[in-house]
Amino acid sequence: MKKIYLILTPLFLTTLTYAQDEQPINDDTTKIKMGNMTIIINDDDTEEGDFDFDMDDTTEVEEKSIGTELDMQLGMNGWLNSSNSTVFSDDYLDMSLQLNRSRSFGMHMMMSGLDIFKGHVFLSPGIGFTWNSYHFENKYVSLTTGNDTTMFLADSAIQFDKYKLRATYAELPITLGFRIGNLDKTFLTVQAGVIGGINIGSIVKQRYFVNSTKYKEKIKDDFNVNPFKLDGIVKLKFKESIGVFARYSFTTMFEQGKTQTVYPFAIGITIGGV
């Protein structure tokens, strides 16, 4: 048995010496040859194929932030008769409006970030207010209300320097939007939706002169204005900054049966939003 050890010991030492004289595969690799067998020791724990028990398996996820944007609408408003015309018959001629002085102003906080398809299709609900003012074409016309009627009467004794009906609404809009074009460069945004509203106040502001004396009055009343309304809206914007809008009400301006049936509308510019 001792003879076998004496023979194997020089052979083993010779093999180790030969292995150390071999050029390593790289700076962190040791190669040992024992007969027909080669042993490679790799000290580089960054080489591909090594096990790393501290592997950080993270997946990069794009975060879509949800926020709000202020959308303002400024334009002209009026109302249409049942024939979708601004021209009224002789019986209701006093309902004709001076459109270039009738104004609509709306402010809505619209939710952004609700993408449906790759940023090109999105949903945007919101909340806000709209103020609609109506100036009558005939400067002698004023509003008179009763239990069952709203009348537009002309009195030649008083010529109004200013007379307007203003209705204020709290609103909940929701629109479906489409971005058309390259989102990193130039694109158009088209939105269509509905706006539900509740009338929270109606007022008449009038100003007139009698014997060179100026009188200013405010009359608060419901004027039989419909307490609820539902509008359709369409907006066309360059990117998401400025554009045009159009609104049309599916509900009547005044309560049914109280006066001539008219449907409010508004057109103008929109600024901001999504």
Automatic annotation (TrEMBL):
Residues 1-19 form the signal peptide. It comes from the Bacteria. It comes from Parvicella tangerina. Keywords: Signal. This is Outer membrane protein beta-barrel domain-containing protein. Pfam families: OMP_b-brl_2. Residues 117-250 form the Outer membrane protein beta-barrel domain.
